Amino acid sequence: MRLQVFLSHAGICSRRKALEPILAGRVTVNGKQITEPSFDVRPSSDKVCFDSRPVHLPQKIYLLLHKPQATISTVSDPHASKTVLELIPQHLRSGLHPVGRLDKDTTGLLLLTNDGELTHKMSHPSYEVEKVYRVVLNKEAGDGDIRRISQGILLEGQKTLPCRIVKRGPMELEMAIHEGRKRQIRKVFALFHYHVERLKRIRQGGLELGSLKEGEWRFLTPQEVARIMQEIRKTPKGKKKK
């Protein structure tokens, strides 16, 4: 792990702001002053100090929340009536943030963690982490419209990636996508003159919402953590394995 990233994950400062103290010689690794931000740190064995004080990575936490309607997927928002973090006990909130976002009216699976690397990889489209939604429309979806949407359409000047859509009823669909543009599903169906009445995320990267009720949360099991770690170890699209 790069020294610059290590300081950011340890909560000392942001990744960008970590450059200044490193270049100023305020950081040591195993007693040696390091002024190279890209210096490789092994968190399990190296002793990192900032202004002579030991620095440790926090214990990583992974929570699965069933986000209810009328809550905002952010850490804090002075204009929001309620954020997702307010649904989590106070003693667990430090450093916790949502992995990606669900808009105010969308419900379902939302992963919360203090693991910055996992957040980046699960949110970045190059890793193509699959997200599955249950979509309820205001009228029956035509087969031709479903076919066109699944092949990818032009949305705000950029073509959407191909997706998988399965009909679960006349007005109910299951839609799997690998990107997360703002209000993408709602906007795509609006182009075909549908209104999304209800939208719920039921799966993400091998995680299942299951029977968790709105507003409830739970810790991920060790098996679930292992599954998502395996998911983000995949080579990003467009990059070759060395």
Number of domains: 3
Q: What does the largest sheet look like?
A: 9 strands, mixed
The named CATH superfamily of the largest domain:
Pseudouridine synthase I, catalytic domain, N-terminal subdomain
**Mean pLDDT across residues:** 90
CATH topology of the largest domain: Alpha-Beta Plaits
CATH class of the largest domain: Alpha Beta
Name the quaternary structure: single chain
The radius of gyration over CA amounts to: 21 Å
Number of helices, counting only DSSP H or I runs of 4 residues or more: 6
Low-pLDDT sequence parts: none
Shape: elongated
Q: Could you tell me the number of beta strands?
A: 15
Q: Strand fraction band?
A: 25-35%
Q: What is the second-level CATH architecture of the largest domain? A: 2-Layer Sandwich
The percent of residues in helical segments reads 10-25%
- Ends distance: 18 Å
Would you list the SSEs in sequence order as H and E?
Answer: HHEEEEEEEHEHEEEEHEEEH
Overall structural class, as computed from helix and strand content, comes to alpha+beta
